[in-house]
Amino acid sequence: IWAALAIPVIRMLEGARSQSAVVALLFSVLMGANLLRPMDMPAGLQMAHLIEVAGANLIFGLIVVRLLRRPTSTALPRACRADHDGSNKGLDGSCA
User: Fold this and answer.
1) What is the C-alpha to C-alpha distance for residues 84 and 3, in angstroms, rounded to an integer?
2) pTM for this one?
3) Distance (Å, rounded) from C-alpha 53 to C-alpha 40?
4) Which of 15, 44, 63, 83 allows an S-S link to 88, with CB 3.0 to 4.6 Å?
């Protein structure tokens, strides 16, 4: 369920530097918001649990983004690394 929530956000923010932070905060707020309403739990324990849940889900959100985003590699192919002016062509001549 949480991956289904994260994928559209990751796709909308693709390439944005704040992508990880937005998804991590979204996870943290959505999963921890329930602890903000009054419960039959002592206030100190409720606040400690809120901090615990929010922190854990913040880290979980960062991991989810890392695993689900598309790789964006701008590295040159191995055959083209030595000389990027186009004179060192790969086997298929794809280096430019």
Assistant:
1) 39
2) 0.63
3) 18
4) 83
